[in-house]
Amino acid sequence: MGGLRNNISSTTSFTLTGFPEMKGLEHWLAALLLLLYAISFLGNILILYIIREEQSLHQPMYYFLSLLSVNDLGVSFSTLPTVLVTVCFHAPEMTFDACLAQMFFIHFFSWTESGILLSMSFDRYVAICNPLCYSTVLTDARVARIGISIIIRSLCMVFPLPFLLKRLPFCKANVVLTHSYCLHPNLIRLPCGDTTINSMYGLFIVISAFGIDSVLILLSYVLILHSVLAIASRDERLKTLNTCVSHICAVLIFYVPMVSVSMVHRFGKHAPEYVHKFMSLVYLFVPPMLNPIIYSIKTKEIHRRLHKMLLGTKF
């Protein structure tokens, strides 16, 4: 029986349905998605280039921002192949192993992004609450160790997922997926076996990674706000808080869609299918696109360098 189950799973293929609700508008949808990808790629590559070239940006805060940009590029590259072939070329077939690989990378980059946002909140906490120790606490070596630990944590969390899915039987040779990419919450709804372990592990990861990270980020900002309110000058308080605006926006545009997707999958099983698709699109497309825009607008040094690059004048 075990051999039969493994054989069924290994020969299963998936059909990615894409967006049948938008029949007749596929060209407009394809153009919109390609535009979002282009903005994401161009924006994040520009951020990386500016940080690399601008010597004054070789600081912990911008090292973490570089990690965020690399991670956002990873998210975009993870979804790009299947979105393109499904929406643009109408080739929805996908093998079981390819689907598991895409799921692995999508969730790996998602959990990595959560860790990076937590690290950035720690950077803001040290810079505002203990500025005299900033250079000794966040050394280049320590920033590198933090980055490596984030990657290792994400790998450890996502590594069991493909194996937990491979052990399950899929009772059809071809399984229909209602998205243009493979996500764990969608995949565990498809096998005809018991998915309790998969569901429990998925919930454990959400709580232990996203839950703990979000609580620690919130705690860091409570401490930051406490320190800022102790500053006598109103202008200084606003100036200090302004250094956190970009990060707060990045946290909100990541966690709000992520929590919404999780809630819809777990408690909105009877919601229309287009609601699931829309929430997943927002979760995967919006943060990589908006993060470079926010940091380009709100970070004075990046804004100045970008202005100089585009117009050839000093800002």
Automatic annotation (TrEMBL):
Checking InterPro entries in the record gives:
GPCR_Rhodpsn, GPCR_Rhodpsn_7TM, Olfact_rcpt, OR51/52/56-like
Could you list this entry's UniProt keywords, alphabetically sorted.
Cell membrane, G-protein coupled receptor, Membrane, Olfaction, Receptor, Sensory transduction, Transducer, Transmembrane, Transmembrane helix
Q: What transmembrane ranges does the database entry give?
A: 28-51, 63-92, 104-122, 143-165, 203-229, 241-258, 278-297
Identify one Pfam family in the record.
7tm_4
The keyword Transmembrane helix appears for this protein: yes
Family per record: Belongs to the G-protein coupled receptor 1 family.
Specify the protein name.
Olfactory receptor
What gene does this protein come from?
Answer: LOC116525318
